[in-house]
Write a sequence for this structure.
């Protein structure tokens, strides 16, 4: 029993170490299968793209059955408005993430400038915000054996936290049937100084990498049917690692949609979604195709959106009444 317990303890330690290493070296952006539903998550230029107050609620449970695997929960909202005869977009996003012994909260406000051109709309957006990070050092378990050093000062033994300014920017171009965007998240590549308290002199450093994203998608109606093809793709990198995912969905009568997707060297995805007037409910299941499939059955993701329609038509502000009708 002692040998068995030792193996279990080593496995848990290894799992925690892998998750911590992943968190320390990757940019803190979730790999969302519903990236096409929530483009403002990666690109603030997408704020205000619809003539509606667009609200999004999303949750991702990654690598179910692995203890301390990533969990993300996010709330986003955006809307268009007019200022000085120019269309703009404004939005906000709040995200909570838990991975390993790390807990993160990310908050951002978005502003996008828009201009009609080439029978479409060009958007340029910025997102100032903050990242708040906590590491639960009191939960660290270091085995007492020759392979580990329980006195390693590089590992916090109590809870440490810190907050830092963050910013993102992007550009997007949309047409009635297709869209494309490019963005950079965490522009300043901030370093979060984790301390026991604000006045503590000792600190641990968490480095946030920039993320570079290119996304696009389109709607392709199938002639003489009620079906549409909806392909979408995204490529992301921090120049240390990269990810690519693509999907193809079929929508029937603008109501029911289903499809499949692929994330390079990571997972195969199955989608199903329902449009209910001004709302959308979507579910995605990621089946892992990497070695991690030996310890997990996959990841689950749910997104819900709701639109409150707005009248954004240009109105004639210089209306004149005919003298004959006065």
């Amino acid at each position: 029993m002692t040998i068995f317990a030792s193996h279990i303890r080593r496995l848990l330690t290894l799992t925690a170490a892998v998750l911590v290493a992943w968190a320390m070296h990757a940019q803190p952006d979730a790999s969302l299968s519903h990236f096409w539903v929530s483009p403002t998550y990666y690109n603030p230029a997408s704020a205000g793209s619809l003539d509606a107050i667009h609200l999004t609620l999303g949750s991702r449970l990654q690598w179910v059955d692995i203890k301390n695997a990533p969990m993300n929960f996010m709330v986003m909202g955006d809307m268009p408005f007019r200022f000085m005869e120019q269309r703009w977009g404004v939005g906000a996003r709040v995200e909570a993430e838990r991975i390993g012994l790390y807990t993160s909260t990310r908050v951002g406000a978005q502003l996008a400038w828009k201009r009609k051109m080439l029978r479409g709309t060009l958007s340029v957006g910025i997102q100032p915000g903050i990242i708040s990070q906590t590491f639960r050092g009191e939960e660290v378990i270091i085995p007492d054996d020759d392979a580990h050093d329980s006195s390693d000062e590089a590992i916090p033994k109590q809870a440490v936290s810190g907050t830092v300014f963050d910013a993102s920017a992007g550009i997007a171009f949309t047409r009635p049937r297709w869209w494309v965007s490019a963005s950079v998240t965490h522009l300043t590549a901030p370093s979060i100084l984790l301390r026991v308290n604000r006045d503590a002199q000792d600190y641990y450093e968490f480095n946030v990498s920039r993320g570079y994203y290119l996304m696009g998608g389109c709607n392709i109606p199938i002639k003489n049917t009620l079906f549409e093809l909806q392909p979408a793709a995204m490529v992301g990198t921090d120049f240390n690692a990269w990810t690519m995912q693509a999907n193809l969905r079929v929508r029937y009568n603008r109501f029911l949609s289903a499809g499949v997707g692929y994330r390079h060297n990571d997972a195969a995805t199955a989608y199903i979604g329902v449009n209910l007037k001004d709302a959308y409910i979507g579910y995605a299941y990621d089946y892992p195709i990497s070695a991690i499939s030996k310890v997990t059955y996959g990841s689950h993701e749910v997104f819900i959106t709701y639109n409150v329609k707005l009248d954004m038509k240009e109105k004639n502000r210089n209306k004149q009444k005919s003298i004959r009708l006065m």
Q: What stands out?
A: Residues 85 and 315 are 10 Å apart (CA to CA). The chain has one domain: 2-312. The mean pLDDT is 86. The chain has one helix and 17 strands.
